[in-house]
C-alpha cells in the first residue's frame, strides 16, 4: 500500500501544479479553453487529493508515523511541491 501512496503523492502533486497552471496562464490567454479544462482537471485533482489523505490515514499506524510526521505529511498536500518533498524525505527509503 505504501507504493500506491507514493504514486498517489506524485500524481497529486502533478495535478496540483497542472491545475495552478490552468488557472494562472490558460485562463488569461484563452478563457474558453480554461472552462473546458477546469472540470476534468479539478475532478482529477480532487480525487487524487482525497486518495492521498485517506491513504495517509491508513498508513499512519503501519508506518509508525508520530503525530508531527503525520501532520507534516497531511499539510504537504496543501502546498505546491509539498507532496514531492514528502515522497523524497519520508517515503523514498520505505518501499
Describe this structure in words.
This protein has helices spanning 2-29, 31-59, 67-76, 82-91. It is mostly helical and 95 residues long. The protein has one domain (2-91). α1 (2-29) runs antiparallel to α2 (31-59). The model has no long low-confidence stretch (mean pLDDT 87).
Topology readout:
Layout: H1 2-29, H2 31-59, H3 67-76, H4 82-91
Helix pairs in contact: 1-2, 1-4, 3-4
Largest sheet composition: none
Tell me the β content.
under 5%
C-alpha Rg, in Å? Answer: 15 Å
Q: Enumerate how many helices there are, as a single number.
A: 4
Report the span from N to C terminus.
9 Å
> Unreliable stretches, pLDDT < 50, 5 or more residues?
none
The 3D shape can be described as elongated
- Helices and strands, in order, run as HHHH
In total, how many domains does the architecture comprise?
1
GO cellular component, one term: plasma membrane
Domain DUF3817: 2-90
Subcellular location: Cell membrane
Keywords: Cell membrane, Membrane, Transmembrane, Transmembrane helix
Briefly, what is this?
The protein has four helices and no strands. The protein is mainly alpha-helical and 95 residues long. It has one domain.
